[in-house]
Amino acid sequence: MAQVKHNHFLDTVDQVFNYAKELKILHLEAQGEKFNGRSIRIEGKDVFHFGTTGYLGLEQDERLKEGAKKAIDNFGTQFPLSKSYIAHPLYKNLEKMLYRIYGQPVVIAKNATLAHMAAIPVIARDNDAILLDHQVHWSVQDAAKRLKLRGVKVELVRHNRLDILEKKIQEISSTVDKIWYMADGVYSMYGDFSPVNKLLKLSKKYKQLHLYFDDVHGMSWFGENGRGYVFEQLQSLPNKVCIVGTLSKTFGANGSFIICGDKLIQQKIKNFGGPLTFSAQLDPASVGAAIASAKIHLSKEITKFQKELKDKIDYFNMLLEKYQLPLVEKNESPVFFIATGVPETGYQLTRLLLDGGFYVNMGLFPAVPSTNTGLRITISRHNQKEDILELTKALAKLYPNVMATTGNTMERLSKAFKQDFYFKEEKVEDVNFKVIQKHSIEEIDRKLWNESFLGEGILDWDGFHFIEKCFRHHQLKEHQWKFFYIQIFDCSGELLVLGAFTLSLWKDDLLTKSSISKQIELKRINDPYFLTSKVLSLGSLFSDGLPLYINKNSHKEQKAVNVLFQTLEDIASKNNASQIILRDFNLSSSYKNTFQLQGFIPVHMPEVCVIEEMKWSSLEEYVNTLSKKSKKHFEKDIAAYSHLVEIETIDEVNEEKLSHFYKLFKNVKNKNFGLNTFTYPKTVFEEMNKSKHWEFICIYIKNNSSETKRAIGVMFCYKNGQSTYVPSLIGLDYTYNEKYQTYRQLLFASIWRANKAGFQKVDFGISANFEKKKLGAKVIPKIAYVQSDTNFKMDYLETQQ
C-alpha cells in the first residue's frame, strides 16, 4: 500500500503561515501603552490601522469603558460559577436589552465559537444533514464536522451557489429529516453578502430546509438598532432560522448570542448547550460593556454612527475606482479585498504599506486559494478621510511597481479571480526569453533530453515516448492525456528550462486517506467522474520523478522560472485545468520559497525508495549490506520461502499470459486506495509487451502439478538506459501471497535481476516503503507544490475526514 502522510493539509497551512511570519506579515505584536483605534504601534512606529473588525469603533467609546470598570468594581474580575447554576446579576439586564433589539429572547455565550459549539449539536439531530457554504466561518465548519461522529451527514456547497444547494437538497431529502444550510451573513474575507431572502424563499419551497447564519461581521453597522444584516433582511425571525450574533467586534464588548425562530430549540440550547453548561460565563466587565453598547444600539446615536461609517465606505469605494485598483467585491460592507493574486505580490505590498505607515491584513491560503491572495482592508469610524486618501494614494503608487517586480500582470490576476482587471494593463513581451512548446517527445532532441533524465525513473526519452503511446489517443477520457514539452531559451540560445508536463484527469482524493477514497468510490459506481479535475502536472500519473531541468548556472534562472510559471498558467487556463502540480521535489529543494511565493502550496507526496549501491556480486555479499534486523527479516520472510517458488524473467508473453498479468495487476490496484488513481487500461500492458524497454519478472509455485504453469505474481519492470532498473508495477494473486510471501519474493527478485543485468541503481518508486527499506532501499521523502484555482475540493475532502 502507498505510504502517504495524510496530515498534509495541516502541514501545508503551517508552512504557509511560518513563511508569512518570517516575512513579518503574520503574528505581529502591537506595542505601546495606549490604543486609540485610528493608529496602532507596530515595530516601534505608529501606523494607520486598516485591519480592525470594530467597524463602528465602539470599543473606544468611554461609555463602554466606564460600564466595564463599574462592573469590575461591583462584581470582580470574574464570576466563577457556571451560568447553569447562577448567572451574575448583570446578565438579566443585558438579556432584556437584547430582547428589545430583536423582539425575542436570546441565549448569551462567551464567544461565537462556543456559541456554535453549543447550538449546532442541539439543533441538528442524528438523522439530519448539514450543508455548509464553502466560505462559512471556520468556527461553524468545525462545530458541524464534529457531528459526523454521530452519523450526521455534513457536506460543503460552493459559495452562494443556490442552484447547487437546491440540487443537493433534492438529492438527499429522502434520506434525512431536516437539512440545515449554514452560512455567514457577511463574509469576512471579501465582504460579500449571503442571499438571505433567496434562501428564505428556498426554505419555503422545501419544508426540510432550515437556515443557520453566523452574522458576526454584519452586526451593529447594519440594520435598525444595529441588529445586523441577516435580521434586517428577514425583519422577523422565521421558525426555521437560527442566527448567531456577536457582542464583540463591532458591538464593542465581548461575547455572543444565539436567537432561534423555534423557541423550543432555543430553550434546549439554553438548557444544555455544552459550552453554556460547562464553560465559565462572561466576565462582569464584558457584560457591563455590552450593556453600555446595547444602550447606544437602542438610541438614535447608532443610526448616526452607521451613516458616518457608510460615508467613509462610499468614499473608499470611490477612491478605489478613481485610482483603478482591483477591488474583488464592490458593495456597502466595510470589508474590502484588493486582488494581488500570487502571494509574493501580496507579501511585498503588505510589507511596503506597513513600512509606509499603513497596516492592512493580507488574505492568504487557506482563507483564499493560493493564487487569490489580496489585501484585506477594513474601514472603521476611527479612520479619517485624509487617512483613507493617503492609503489609496500609497497603494496606487506601489501596486504597479510591485506587480512588475514580482512578475505579475493584470492578465494573470483576471484569470485567477475570473474577473476583468484589464483596465490598467500594459502588456510587454519579454524579448529576453524564447518559449518553445512541443506536444510530443519526438519533437525533442533525444540527446538533449537524456542529458538531464537518462537514468531517472521512467523519465528518459524512451520512457516518455512509451507513456505518449499509451495515453495520447485512448477512448476513455481519463486516459486521454495531452503532453507539453516546454523549452525556455535566453536571447543567446542558452537553454534555461526544459520540462515535461501532462494534462490529465485526476481523482481529487488521490492523496486522501484510504477510508475516504473507499467512500468516494462507492459514489463513482454510478458517477465515475465524481470529484475529478483536470490537472496540469509535471511528469505524469504513470511516472514518479522530476522531469524538470533548470539551468542554475545562469543569472537569469529566477526570471526564467517566472516565465515558466506564466507559461503553465496560460496552458492551464486554455485547457480549463483547475490545478497545476509540480511534483516529487526533495524537501530541501532550493525552489521551495520560489514556488510558495508564486502561489504553489506544499503538499506531502508518497515517499520513494531507491537502492543506489549495487556493489555486490553474490547473495552473501548482498545480505551483508543489510542491517542486523533486516538480515533476520530476509532469512525469515524471503530466504525461507525461496525453495517453494521459481522466478522467471520474460521479455514478451502471449495474449493469454498478458491477460492473466493484467488481472493480477488489477488485484493490487483494487486494494490500493492510498494513492487513488484511475486504473491503467490493458493497452498500457500491451505496449509493455511490445517494448524492448520493459520486461516481466514472474513468480510460480515450484513443482506445480498443473500442466500449464500459471504465475501467482508479476513485476512490471522498466529499463532506463543501462543505469537504472525500475520495478514500476506489481500484480499478485492474494490467494498465495501469505503462503509463499509472493510480494517479498518479487521485491528481492527485482533487486537480484537488476544486479545481474549490470544496472547501477534500482528505483522502486512508491508504495510499501517499509518492505523495501528492509531490503536495503533508501526512503526519500518527496513533496509536491500545488497551485489551485479554488480551495473547494480540498476543503470538501477535509469535511469527509
From TrEMBL:
Q: Where is the Aminotransferase class I/classII large domain?
A: 46-386
Superkingdom in the source lineage? Bacteria
- What Pfam families does the record tag this protein with? Aminotran_1_2
Q: Check the record and name the SUPFAM superfamilies matching this protein.
A: Acyl-CoA N-acyltransferases (Nat) (SSF55729), PLP-dependent transferases (SSF53383)
Q: Cross-referenced Gene3D superfamilies, in alphabetical order? A: Aspartate Aminotransferase, domain 1, Type I PLP-dependent aspartate aminotransferase-like (Major domain)
**One GO MF term attached to the UniProt entry:** transaminase activity
Q: Which cofactor does it need?
A: pyridoxal 5'-phosphate
Provide this UniProt record's keywords sorted from A to Z. Answer: Aminotransferase, Transferase
Q: What is this protein called?
A: Aminotransferase class I/II-fold pyridoxal phosphate-dependent enzyme
Species name: Mesonia ostreae
Q: What is the lineage of its organism?
A: Bacteria, Pseudomonadati, Bacteroidota, Flavobacteriia, Flavobacteriales
